[in-house]
UniProtKB/TrEMBL annotation, chains A, B:
The protein's name: CSC1/OSCA1-like 7TM region domain-containing protein
PANTHER family named in the record: CSC1-LIKE PROTEIN HYP1, PROBABLE MEMBRANE PROTEIN DUF221-RELATED
Domain CSC1/OSCA1-like 7TM region: 375-639
Organism annotation: Lactuca sativa (Garden lettuce)
Keyword Transmembrane helix carried by entry: yes
Record Pfam families: PHM7_cyt, RSN1_7TM, RSN1_TM
Family as reported in the entry's similarity comment: Belongs to the CSC1 (TC 1.A.17) family.
Length: 731, 731
């Protein structure tokens, strides 16, 4: 790619960014858009009139910049805080990289004359003249690159260590300062063994009160409530119809036929008809609820009954899972960390998610089905990641004008126009790739959700890892190692060849990735600020919806979508740092913009839906280590290709040292991200003992993990008040 | 190798075995050899006169065969029981293999005509005519081999599953039936953080009594007692001299010079002199002991003193490690399984070994040094394993007569003699290899001992794994992939090529391995029965030693030496099962002999020195899985080479299924081998509560982990009684 094509791409995207940001600056001041640009403030104040005052007229940049880290931590939780630390960490890394790259490596690269360039025609100069490819073979100047690789690795490792420690300390501080939460005292137990003489609930009660006589508090069985959900869904549909019927003024619409497709049967008063039907459904749902709820409270009150006296419909709906609560945090920790039963596939424990975070599905599966499910999902995910090559190959084709001309000869005329060819080679390819890549996060989230995870946060975390590998493979490797899918897999089946193949392929793609940073990175970040899709939806809703009949919901940040993108840019920066330092300023702009934009979004737009306590950081750490090793492998290959085999050999210890460093970090910090130390737990437990509200908290704890389907319903009583939320549970 | 050479080797070794067994049958009946052939009985009865009666005149085979499994379990512990299960498991596997191999595969192989054989000259027939190499390329008969591979894998996996479950259940039963042991209540804590205001002992006391107020019992600090050990060693030497002086009748020897080398200085009464010196040393040792013991009991009695008032010599010898005991098993389990402190490199816990099993070294090292030490040992071990090639290459050279003739042309005459050449090709190579391999277990044990292990059992287990890989690489791969070391490593850097390279190389070595089974397997087992080395030592001792001045010690079985050997034969059997079924009868003989011999040895010769609770079984399981996968890879390669690519492709899922099966087994059984379930622990704890002896046990528990160097000494009081044991501790 020539420099001018890149400049076109930069120009287009810069323009787009400016337009997006200007639009945002104008639109956000209109109170009518408050639900798009400051939904958190809308939700928090619940008062529209104060809004204008709350949206300050000074620049949004100041609003995003001014709040301290502690305020951010308070408003967006530790996960949001960690998310912003990724930007800070990347900014530190790439500031160092840019100083070294632009001041030292870039001039050295440009001084070489391996690639022919016309010094006077700067605009048409190939970007490769700024890359390591331009340094003469065997040149002693490559030792400077060698030194840079070592220095950069040392610097990044130092930062990784400091950052891991900092986030671990924040996690512990966050834990010890937080108030008692139900999930700290509760574990999810799965694989409760079936017994012929007892109900599952009795088995759980007996097991835990025997093993933990002083610590066990209560348990809450999980039931198969799909039948109740079905009833509630039906009821909700009818309720909606009823609401819209009642809100219409024309009485003619109140009468209609209720037979097949609304075409047959006698005409009836629909309001009356639906009200009756709603009542029937509600009664049935309540009957079902009382069956399960009744038994649950029955057993909670420690009255033991024989299994044979239990109704069959109850027994079949009891699942082999329960939430078990303890009187102290240490009790929950013991059940979590030590094997419970004699059969390791029974009495399996998992940390209970926060009550708002539970994913009420897949509780029913047994150990074996869940294990098989996991295997299947891993296989499906691998297949999907590898076979996603079709759109990528199309994109590859589009970056090459000649391929296009051969495929579509009639386009030759158009393609020869300078602007068109520059748009096609500079902008279009990454746009198409970007569009295709949008599908990945939802698909991966779906795959994660059919694994055995029981909380949205775990699904998000697992999907984040899946998307990360997907994106690294399909953006980085697919573009770097262009060619057939088999060829690419073959590279990795030939471990000895990896460095040289990467070294031959990767530097040539620098310009593509610069263009990718600009199109995907810059524009995405700016459009995140503008929130185009929610803005359009908000207009549509305002036009078509008569009343605000749905509860106003503050959106949450999708970590599975955002983190892999940032990490991919980090990977690009780290791998290209010494080969093509020209990518670094573009990356710095991206990270600066991202820092401001996401800080703004986390403070004013997104509200956290769960709290993992910073468990996303280890993903960032591992990905950075992977990027470093990839960079080092490429360095080994490039020094070899450039006929400086001594430097190549001397780089070989570097990946080994990096891996050892990673091993040490694992030992040093990872345990802190899996649980909490006894020291802190006992401290918190002791503090609780002196807390007068703890007995009240324990009472709440007993019902904290009740299935939403089993909570009391009250459709019929709310039909008169149309504006009430639809699925109205008593709180 | 031709059949006759193999027959010579079999003949020689069969002869050796017969001689060994006959010698054993004769020698064992002589009461004078009782300490070699029945040391356990000698130690147990402590009465020589009854020995003749105790050594029955009926065959030793009956003695080994008759005791039930429960008796074996009682006498040799779960480790000995698991050791014998390896033989039983192997016998089951290879009986099936032999039936399939000899009845179905061998005739098919022999019917092929890929290799030319003279049907009438059977003795000179090449062994390869019985192997898969003889089956015609592309023959449909290979589908029978394909079926055999699948059936064998299914059978072995089924057996593995059953056996893993059986041993896990035995482990749990053993645990729940055993009496309270100190190590069940104790954990070893390392990385106690240093404090400026408290001694380490105070820090430990404070931490555990705060975190576990109801469970914590006591702790025992570990001190650097090297100074005391030095004093005790010196005292022991003088004590020995004194004993020998006192036992001599000639009074002239009682006087001598005590200056430099005993040449200068005035003549003194040596007995008097040594007695005085012994007293001085003993006093010094007692002073040192009281310093540490005093402080220890001081702190044990909960009197807190300021660190500044502690003598400096005490503080410097306090190590950052302690044995912490709890009132219940669950307390110890909590400390073991949940992270204690906020820094994961501090308050590290390990299961306490049995008190007889402690390895009193390397307690002092910090987390970082231990981590680095581990890395260094792993690297050293890998290097040793890979670079052991020199003796193996010599052995390789010797199996080839031509190489020998070229190297030593003057030997040509001798080498051409039929018997000599057959001895050299059939017997000598494996004998040399065997001798070299004897070095491996002690070296690996040394490497394991400088890792951070704190018990002999852990060292043995870790050395067992190291020796296993060493032996598989240096016997199996080195012989199968003969050639330079670099070539061999290259094979594994080329994953796609592994099956075809193995397929080309492995079948050709069948005769070498048959000969290896015969020389190494048969003869070693028979010589294990004869116990040649201890027999010779016992003779030497009887000739030179005047009195039985050393305590009679019952030997223990070295698992690190024996288990890898058995597993290697298992690997040979599994990999050669479908290629060269001729190896199977030889292996069956080996396993039958081993079963009888080691049953006898475990019952009458070896006594267990520690009890890991069957933790050696997972090694056997993993090695069998590895063997299966190796066999499947070779099958993939051979079917490919034999131009039956469909069979080759259809075999590819097999290793994947095997790995999945292994993954399931890991989930299903492995947790049981890492600890014990809460269910059992609480049961045992409850049983203890009703036990009247438990308070007595708890008192003992407090001092159970006292360093032997800190136990009271009484040399001087025992000098009059010469026959007393040397390092006489008060019990």
């Amino acid at each position: 790619m020539i420099l001018s094509a890149l400049l076109v791409s930069v120009g287009i995207n810069f323009g787009l960014c400016v337009i997006y940001i200007c639009l945002f600056s104008i639109l956000r001041k209109l109170p009518v858009h408050a639900d798009v640009y400051a939904p958190r403030i809308v939700a928090e104040t619940k008062n529209d009139s104060t809004l204008e005052r709350l949206l300050p007229s000074s620049s949004w940049v100041r609003m995003a910049w001014l709040p301290t880290e502690d305020e951010l931590l308070m408003r967006s939780g530790l996960d949001g805080f960690v998310f912003m630390r990724i930007y800070i960490f990347s900014l530190k890394v790439f500031t160092f990289a840019a100083v070294v790259g632009l001041c030292i490596l870039l001039p050295i690269n440009y001084m070489g004359n391996q690639i022919y360039i016309d010094f006077f025609d700067f605009t048409n100069a190939s970007l490769e003249s700024f890359s390591i490819s331009n340094v003469n073979d065997g040149s002693k100047r490559l030792w400077i690159h060698f030194g840079a690789v070592y220095a950069f690795t040392a610097f990044v490792c130092y930062l990784l260590y400091v950052e891991f420690g900092y986030i671990a300390s924040k996690r512990l501080a966050f834990y010890s300062s937080s108030k008692p939460k139900p999930n700290e005292f509760t574990v999810l137990v799965r694989g409760v063994p079936k017994s012929s003489t007892e109900s599952l609930s009795e088995t759980v009660e007996k097991f835990f009160s025997e093993c933990y006589p002083t610590l066990y508090l209560s348990h809450y069985m999980i039931y198969n409530t799909s039948k109740i959900w079905k009833l509630l869904d039906d009821a909700e549909k009818i309720y909606r119809k009823l609401v819209s019927l009642k809100s219409t003024k024309q009485s003619s619409q109140r009468y209609g036929r209720v037979g097949c497709l609304g075409l047959f049967g006698p005409k009836v008063d629909l309001v009356e008809y639906y009200e009756k039907e709603l009542e029937v459904l509600e009664d049935e749902a309540k009957k079902q609820q009382s069956l399960l709820n009744g038994k649950a409270s029955y057993l909670l009150s420690h009255i033991h009954i024989l299994s044979s006296t239990l109704p069959h419909s109850y027994v079949t709906r009891e699942l082999r899972a329960a939430f078990v609560s303890f009187k102290s945090r240490i009790g929950a920790a013991i059940t979590l960390n030590i094997q419970q039963g004699q059969n390791p596939t029974e009495w399996l424990t998992d940390p209970a998610p926060e009550d708002r975070d539970i994913y009420w599905a897949f509780f029913s599966t047994s150990f074996l089905t869940r294990w098989i499910g996991n295997v299947v999902v891993v296989l499906a995910c691998t297949a999907l990641t590898i076979l996603f090559f079709i759109p990528v190959i199309i994109v590859q084709g589009l970056t090459n004008l000649y391929t296009l001309e051969i495929l579509f000869p009639f386009l030759k005329g158009i393609l020869n126009i300078n602007v068109v060819s520059q748009v096609i080679t500079g902008y279009l390819p990454s746009l198409i790739l970007k569009t295709f890549l949008k599908i990945a996060p939802p698909v991966m989230k779906f795959l994660s959700s059919i694994q055995s995870y029981v909380s949205h946060s775990q699904i998000e975390r697992s999907a984040c890892i899946k998307v990360l590998w997907f994106i690294i493979w399909n953006v980085f490797f697919a573009n770097a190692l262009s060619g057939s899918i088999l060829y690419r897999i073959n590279v990795f089946l030939n471990p000895k060849q990896i460095p040289s193949i990467l070294a031959a392929a990767v530097p040539g793609q620098a310009s593509f990735f610069i263009s990718y940073v600009v199109t995907s990175g810059w524009t995405n970040t700016a459009s995140e600020l503008l929130r185009l899709t929610p803005l359009i939806f908000s207009y549509i809703k305002r036009i078509f919806a008569t009343e605000s009949d749905e509860e106003f919901e503050v959106p949450s940040l999708s970590y599975a979508r955002e983190i892999p993108n940032i990490l991919l840019f980090g990977l690009l920066g780290i791998t290209y740092f010494f080969q093509s330092p020209l990518i670094l300023p573009f990356l710095l702009v991206y990270f600066c913009m991202g820092y401001l934009v996401y800080r703004h979004q986390l403070l004013y737009v997104y509200s956290p839906k769960f709290e993992t306590g910073g468990q996303f950081w280890p993903i960032v750490h591992h990905c950075t280590i992977f990027s470093l090793i990839l960079m080092q492998l490429i360095a080994i290959g490039i020094f070899g290709l450039k006929q400086l085999s001594l430097a190549s050999t001397l780089t070989i210890p570097l990946p080994i040292i990096t891996l050892l460093f990673n091993g040490y970090c694992q030992k040093r910090f990872s345990p802190l991200f899996k649980g909490y130390p006894v020291e802190l737990m006992t401290k918190k437990d002791k503090r609780d003992e002196n807390d007068p509200t703890i007995s009240e908290f324990r009472e709440k704890l007993i019902t904290a993990y009740q299935d939403p389907a089993l909570k009391p319903i009250k459709f019929s009583s709310t039909t008169d008040n149309i504006n009430a939320p639809l699925l109205a549970f008593e709180t």
